[in-house]
Backbone:
């Protein structure tokens, strides 16, 4: 099943636009999981079990697994195997390379890991993107307008008559012949959601920065959703994973997810 | 020892500006290594043994190891452990992420893998770069002007009075307080070497695209070298790794490296 179809099914079944970011940091795990054979895997499995009926997607950030070495890659594979159908998995790796190197990355994330979607950095242009979009059933989310202060350095700088990130959107349309491109739009940029949605009415947006980074949920949902009241994946990582550092961490994660889901749904046009 | 010091020593000892790209593709290995326990590792060790007195750096591209899963990470660690001092290892991963995620990547590549230098994509701005430059002894090579056709899409587009990649160079100077930033400048962009060197007289340039991608060695060296006749790492991967598909693959790699080294040295101001 394609990413889009999985996302559609999971969104409807769970009535949710919440994406849980599995950015699991071994240093931040509750004491009660530290004695498990693989604390990160056990923790992830508990989080998934507690939230799988409340989310539309899971998003592991590859950096957190890569930092653990070879063992991390296996842990990520095992985590992804634990996600029940039809919930899709979007791997956040922000890769950006060309030609046969990009093909290697696409193979790694889509074939070896089995990701349904991937984040890709578009700086190097067409031949850094098309090796990923060639996987028609997978969705490639282009890093477009991010939620960090550094977005001012290049992304928002004017390039001719519009900022660089709008050029990325224009190129995204050119590359979107298989209708499998999405955009990463930072949650702390709410003033831009309406204009970005107008430029890309049908593309899914991955919106990080809700929660720990302090994005404005109401504005993001009202201005970011598509005509069907969907098309946005609102990601929260730390706010859910570390909602409690006690033995109730999974219950607390569930409560935090439920609250976020409902806060989002208040503003959906459905 | 810092990357810069290692590079300086290796360049002088081996009288070389050649960087060998260890982009080892299991599908392209000679038949004679296929029966080894770990064909990629064995092949890399043979290549390193045959070229270590002729190069200034090795550059494994992380994609080729990531595509092999957990086993690939271990293979890369073992490959890097085989590189003799003082030759530095530059890991080409083109990572680009922010805050605590960037810190995870920095930890992965500099601490866990032990890379001396790393390629980083600057699209997301300051907070996507400074977590890497905080490792003072390591050098961060910013993806700046690349050798692929897609460089026309964004990198070379005018942003105000100069192209985007020149803004990256201007920011690189701001971020270079510890004198540990380099630039990735594609070897198929020889007409730009003189202007980029004028803008960054003292930064090392990683120049991919020599060899398989057909860059012009003479122009790259004449216009790219710094005042000491160094400051450029001319990378060749496929032209060296796959110089022969027979049992003489390592000898052929040595011959190809020697020829490239001497072709480069013809044009150095030393």
Residues:
């Amino acid at each position: 099943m394609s990413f889009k179809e999985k996302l559609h099914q999971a969104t409807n079944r769970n009535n949710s636009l919440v994406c849980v970011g599995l950015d699991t940091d071994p240093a931040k795990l509750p004491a009660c999981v530290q004695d498990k054979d693989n604390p990160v895997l056990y923790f992830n499995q508990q989080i998934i079990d507690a939230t799988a009926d409340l989310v539309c997607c899971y998003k592991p950030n590859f950096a957190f697994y890569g930092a653990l070495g070879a063992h991390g890659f296996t842990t990520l594979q095992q985590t992804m195997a634990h996600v029940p159908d039809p919930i899709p998995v979007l791997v956040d790796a922000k890769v950006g390379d060309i030609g046969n190197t990009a093909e290697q990355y696409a193979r790694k994330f889509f074939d070896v890991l089995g990701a349904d979607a991937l984040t890709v950095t578009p700086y190097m242009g067409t031949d850094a993107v098309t090796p990923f979009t060639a996987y028609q059933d997978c969705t490639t989310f282009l890093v477009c307008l991010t939620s960090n202060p550094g977005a001012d350095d290049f992304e928002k700088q004017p390039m001719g008559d519009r900022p660089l990130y709008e050029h990325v959107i224009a190129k995204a349309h050119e590359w979107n012949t298989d209708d499998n491109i999405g955009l990463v739009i930072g949650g702390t940029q709410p003033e831009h959601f309406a204009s970005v949605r107008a430029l890309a009415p049908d593309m899914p947006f991955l919106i990080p920065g809700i929660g720990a980074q302090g994005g404005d949920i109401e504005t993001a949902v009202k201005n970011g959703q598509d005509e069907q009241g969907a098309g946005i994946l609102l990601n929260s990582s730390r706010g859910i994973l570390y909602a409690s550092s006690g033995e109730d961490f999974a219950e607390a994660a569930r409560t935090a997810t439920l609250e976020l889901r409902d806060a989002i749904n208040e503003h959906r046009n459905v």
About this structure: Chain A has one domain: 3-265. The mean pLDDT of chain A is 94.
